[in-house]
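User: Hey, quick favor. My workstation is busy. Could you predict this chain's structure for me?
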Amino acid sequence: MAGFRSLARQVRDPRGDLALRRYSLRKCLERFAPYGHRATWDHLCARHGIGPEDRAPDPERLIGALEELEEARAVWLAYEEGFAARRRREKHDGLRRPGTFDDWHRRTWGGRDIAPCDDPGVHPSAPLAEVLDRLIAALGGEPGAACPVCAETDIVWRRDLAREPWFGPVCTGCGIVVPRPVLTAGALARARSTPAGGLASAA
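Assistant: No problem, here it is.
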């Protein structure tokens, strides 16, 4: 099975068939897709002017989408490296049992569903790397009352999510499932008391 870097080379190959290059970009999302496969694809298409069903898109647009994905992946790999170093130190110090934060991290290992968007058409509009920077900063700070990505405070509790966790706080501004460790107990309680309605597209 081809890895991310091998697939990225296929996307960049000027001799390659455009349909194959597009297919290789989609395959990259099986290795790294911060919003989930479909939502990340929708995000890249919207930001780079690629028709979601276009089998022969402009190669420059494909490469632009790939570069955005690669930049975000570099941010995430650096974060994971720091996380692994922290866990090694904690284990050395006798802290073997992971906490709530580590439970969230376990589900995101490898870079899939970091900030999942349950509705593929509703996702943050900012570049992926910028979104991940904001999320990582929030994970390293004190819990707050707002979405770490778009600063929206209107967060609802969904009980019908399409992937694990099957329930949780969803931002009505940008559509991400907000990691619980970044929200205060009060913000989580308010979300649980707010019925989930339809989300407006943030793309």
